[in-house]
Design goal:
The protein is α+β, with helices and mostly antiparallel strands and 359 residues long. The protein has one domain (2-35, 60-355): B-lactam Antibiotic, Isopenicillin N Synthase, Chain (Jelly Rolls). Helices cover 33% and strands 19% of the residues. The strands form 3 sheets. It has an 8-stranded mixed beta sheet with strand order 1-2-10-7-12-5-4-3.
């Protein structure tokens, strides 16, 4: 298979079959030592990051969470959510070994033979909550993204024990467990900025009632300037908690600008970003902003995001506490599962999904 594929790199059908349908992923191509990017991965110029658009002197805020209840720390988080939509946190309380373990587990899963990973493709997976794949929505994209992923939607410890891949299950669950208190502290601070005095049980479930953890793998790419690891998009989550490795490659779009800011890896830090759900609930005060990931020609990269979401059956809209000040709602009420389906039925397209909820 490999020699014939190498000899027929111009065969779109052959590469799609190998990468997407047979579960080799882009890692399979990289492991074969390809020297030229297959044309299916060549992005239109608009979707690539031009060096002229990079902001070398701008950085997203880094916030020390040692005393997260202090008003000045709360104010920093609220300001970051309003001005940037992204910030990094340090001294958050999650031990470094939890990070190292889940990064190693990510590497371990993607090192599995293709026939093992194939078990978790959409067509073969025992659960819709466990999904291995390449790119974002390959059948809707004009050009594939240079990324493989494993997506794990958390339902219960029992389901995870039974269905999540053993190569990474325990480490992914531990990262989820250890993130719980950090997520609560972040949401408590951000709710204060929206005049929500207390997060009751119903509001807590709406803010963080479901979670999904992704293990992302970005293999070495022969022509990184021609493609993208992840296309420009905003997340549909309430919050996203991202663990980067030491390589970096995440870029965030500056609001009201076409400038892209690199988010440098900081040892022990987590990257936090506002998702569309929280932008809607805050009536636009907090911003979910476009971001994307570049490909790399010299090193494999991994990242592990946790998406903190409303429950699928929740109806989200601007919070009453926000509207009590007299603000007019900018967004209609939408069933969260409808919003998510709208996001996943198309290729990455910047901030277009949030228009779905605008009045």
């Amino acid at each position: 298979m490999a020699p014939s594929l190498l000899a027929n790199l111009d065969s779109a059908q052959e590469i799609t079959k190998f990468v997407i349908n047979e579960g080799h992923g882009v890692k399979g191509l990289a492991d074969m030592g390809i020297q030229t990017l297959p044309k299916q991965f060549i992005q239109p110029p608009r979707e690539r990051i031009a060096t002229s658009k990079l902001a070398s002197q701008l950085f997203i805020p880094v916030i020390d969470m040692s005393n997260s209840n202090e008003q000045k720390v709360v104010d920093m988080m609220v300001d970051a959510a309003q001005m940037w939509g992204f910030f990094q946190i340090i001294n958050h309380g999650i031990p470094t070994e939890v990070f190292e373990n889940v990064k190693s587990a990510t590497q371990r899963f993607f090192e599995l033979p293709a026939e093992e990973k194939r078990k978790y493709l959409k067509e073969y997976s025992a659960s819709n909550c466990v999904r291995f794949g390449t790119s974002f929505t390959p059948h809707e994209e004009k050009a594939f993204e240079w990324k493989d992923y494993l997506s794990l939607f958390y339902v219960s410890e029992d389901e995870a024990a039974a269905l999540w891949p053993p190569a990474c299950r325990d480490e992914a669950l531990e990262f989820l467990r250890m993130s719980e208190s950090v997520i609560r502290r972040l949401l408590e601070a951000l709710m204060k900025g929206l005049n929500v005095k207390e997060i009751d049980r119903e509001k807590e479930l709406m803010l963080m009632g479901s979670k999904r953890i992704n293990l992302n793998y970005y293999p070495i790419c022969p022509n990184p300037e021609l493609t993208i690891g992840v296309g420009r998009h905003s997340d549909v989550s309430t919050l996203t908690i991202l663990l980067q490795d030491h390589i970096g490659g995440l870029y965030v779009r500056k609001q009201d600008d076409d400038t892209w800011i690199h988010v440098p890896p900081i040892p022990g830090a987590l990257v936090i970003n506002i998702g569309d759900a929280l932008q809607i609930m805050s009536n636009g005060r907090y911003k979910s902003v476009e971001h994307r990931v570049v490909a790399n020609e010299s090193k494999n990269r991994v990242s592990v995001p946790i998406f903190v979401n409303p429950r699928p059956n929740d109806v989200i809209g601007p919070l009453q506490e926000v509207l009590d000040s007299g603000e007019k709602p900018m967004y209609k009420k939408v069933l969260y599962s409808d919003y998510v389906k709208h996001f996943f039925r198309k290729a990455h397209d910047g901030k277009e999904t949030v228009e779905f909820a605008k009045i």
